[in-house]
Amino acid sequence: MSVSRILTIVALGVLITISLTTFWDLARQSSGRTITIYGYSAMEEPLKNEVIPAFQEWYRQTHGEEVEFVTAFAGSGHLFNQIRAGAPAQVAIFATEIEPTKLMEDGLITTDWRTFPGNGTFALTVAVILTRDGNPENIKSFDDLGNNGVDVLLPDPTTSGGAQWAILALYGSAFLNGTGIPSDGGTEPAAKLLKRVINNASSLPESARKALTQFGLGYGDALLTYENDALVDIAKGLDYEIIMPQSTIAIEPKVVIIDANIGEEDAALVEEFMDFLWGTEAQEAMAKHHFRVVDQTVFRRHATNFQKVDSPFTIDDLGGWDEASTQIIEGAWREAQRD
Amino acid sequence: MARYALMTSGIGFLILLIALPLTAIFTQAYQGGLAAFWEAVSSPEAVFSLRYTLTLATATTAINGVMGTLVAYVLARYEFRAKSFIDSLVDLPIAIPASVTGFTLLLLYGPVGTIGGPLSDAGIRIMFSFPGILVAHLFMTFPYVVRAVGPVLQDSERGEEEAAQTLGASGFGVFRYVTFPAIQSALIVGSIFTFARSLGEFGATIMVSGNLALRTQTAPLFIFSEFNAGNIEAASAMSVVLVLISFVLFFGLKFATGKLTLGRALQ
After folding, report:
1. Residues of B near A (CB-CB distance < 8 A)?
2. What is the model's pTM?
3. In terms of CATH, what superfamily is A30-121+252-305?
4. What is the mean pLDDT of chain A?
């Protein structure tokens, strides 16, 4: 037998073995209790490293059973498309309320997340600006992102929830004047700021995490991002500076249950997991991962890790999600992009 | 003189275009040392994604090896209406954006799709599981075997097959002893290209796989996720593994077939 024939047979043998064992493992996996969670990108570390292991431990001690978690993390828009196309998510955490609202219209969600504690929010963050060490472009406010020559990185609002929040932060900072009261000029200054910022944008990555990675690779002078993501990188020892604008938006991610994907046998388990998210253990874990948690006792323990926001505003100050998504994200932003 | 000028510009271009970025990946991956590299590629998620990818590539190659040969045979041996139309269909997967393939399959096989609807009522889910990804890979890699085997079949004399038949060989006998030896090398070339293309498939896979770690995450998706999450070391380490596998494949190709390349097979 020739050498090449022996090599071919060995290679085929290896590949067939790998294939069969992989199928075997996949077949074995599907037994037992499982929860499938889809989360927007910033949820990956706190959930995978802390919340999920803590819940598994709690469940083992309470029920004497193992729970397996299947997870997928990506930009909110991507998650939404996948779930709508039939992905098996049972619990999903979205950066905004736009996606869950559409899933509810599609009938995949029947339990209103607004009936959960905190209207479905178990941990918050705010929109901030991340600059290089020493803030060489001297950026102090959202308005400064529109200055000539500032290279701004911001994710793409069509796929990224973080980008939608970033746009609302920009828009709201100009529209509400940092006072919570709409500015005299109406929406004009806000629309102008969006226009100036998009002219400065050098890249629109599809998720907030990818934008952060690009920033880490040296692209851009300033990044509009989540405070928690910015703090993760600062904690890693990266030479960035967080600029907290005088006025910024409170970012409220929503955790929802995708009722269509929950069988009777899983309902109790999913409910217990949902309750766990608002419990002390999960709240501590989220705070450790730089989220401003909703449990005030836990938050106070970590309060020194967060900069104070002088005048925060919320999505309600911009008229709620329905109005904000049509008027600002689909309206003002698109217009700014076009001309 | 001209020879050196041509060689320098040709090889220089190749180095700049292909070797340099690949070297950069290797440097990135080894930045934390061999221990960090090993840690990155031996995490359960990394190991699973690699096994999953190899399994997919194997299954894809096996199916398209057989079906591709069959289609090539039909196109080379039979005359029928709309043959040139069918023939052009074969090449489409090369031109269609992978994302288009991905979402088309997603819609077709999804809970509201023509095929997916009835299946999903029956409790069968194709997308976000192995069969769905396999379908996408079969689609994306279909042309390679057909286009490698086709020309060889066209060149080879139908007469030999007929002679064997006249001498009393069965249909299978003709294929086993006459047709197969003629196309063997081309089939290997096509299969290796199919395997390699499947190994690196990303655009359609990200759409149909659901990107579930330890379930449906292929190695290219693992790289994408790790890069997005800022774990550039892990992303680079897995890239190195895929680059090495591909290199071995194509090097093995030369070894197994002597001078034959896809370029010639495609003529």
Report:
1. 51-52, 54-55, 57-59, 106-107, 110-111, 116, 120, 125, 127-128, 130, 210-215, 225, 227-230, 232, 252, 255-256
2. 0.83
3. Periplasmic binding protein-like II (3.40.190.10)
4. 91
